[in-house]
User: What shape does this take?
Amino acid sequence: MEKRKFKIKTTFIDRKQEVRLLHNYLEAQPNSILFLYGPKSSGKTTLLYRLCDELAEDKSCEVKFLNLRETFLDSYDDFLQVFFKTRNNRENGLKVSTKRQYSMFGLFKLDAVVERMLKGKKEDPFLIMEKEFHKLVKKGRKPLIIIDEFHKLSGIYLPEKQKTLITELMNFFVAMTKESHLCHVIIASSDAFFIEEVYNDSKLSKTSAFQNLDYLFCADVKEWLSHINRYNEVADFSLNEKDIELIWETVGGSPWEIQYILERLFEFPLTKIVEKIKKERAAMVADWCFQDETNERKKLMKSFLDHSVQPIQAFDPYQRSILGQAVHDNILFYDPVEGAYGMQGKSLEWGIKEYFGIRPGKK
Ligand SMILES: Nc1ncnc2c1ncn2[C@@H]1O[C@H](COP(=O)(O)OP(=O)(O)O)[C@@H](O)[C@H]1O
Ligand SMILES: [Mg+2]
Assistant: This one.
């Protein structure tokens, strides 16, 4: 329990449907990998930590959670260190997130002999993991692997092999889920290219379930903002209907941006905060468009003015690389399951409106 005092706290809103979905996946015997994807800051990591909190009470479950966000990963040896707990991790200077309680060193604890064998490449890491799962299952436990920011493993190759680590890991997880039904695997990523790759690989897409985590629904945002004293323990101010509507109109259900606004309300009036957000997003769009002499980026942005989400058919194949760049730069989001591109959040929709000089209510 958090005992520290703040004038505003962070909160966790709803996600009942998504939490239930994750529980549903876990209640069935392992048979597929679950991919949790969605735009940056939609709440994937937060949702997974919430799931872990809930599972902490379930003694039959053995959760192995790895958040690769703040982990430095460059080589196969880094992968071994991150996945397998070794006693010298700190001395080796490996940076591993310690921010949240579940970001732990190593998914699997090794005894000294196995550790030496593994480091000497005399032991197969995949076999070690499989053995551990068998051991847990024998004890009546249900192993669950959760890897956040999985795409950070891309670019790493297996020693003396042409195969990438990601391919090998994915094949291993398919074997652990669909084939031997040993453990559940949840993989989260906001990297659209990575998801697209997995989704378009028929071998993988037929062995995985894909779950999009979008921003919060309007009703949930309104419930949140109507009771900030309860959800955020804010005592200094409350929001009226007009304020709530303005926040929703500006940032939609983006939880990080909503919290950002609330924190600034101690200092500034809402209209000023909203104006600043729109200006900042317009500058972001302007900067992105400015980096392209052909004006193709500008043309692309303009097409999102009237339709904030567009199916892939709406574009020409020559626009593919520029769309990819927009996704990479967090301007657009791509959903491979829907086959559609959309603006990354409502505030960026304001950004393009401002950039093209369209200001409702103003001449
Ligand atoms: N359900 C929620 N209710 C309130 N705030 C949330 C919720 N989900 C996420 N947030 C906040 O939004 C921010 C981004 O969430 P995060 O889980 O890091 O997103 P992602 O992993 O999708 O990039 C965090 O600061 C978190 O506190
Ligand atoms: Mg995250």
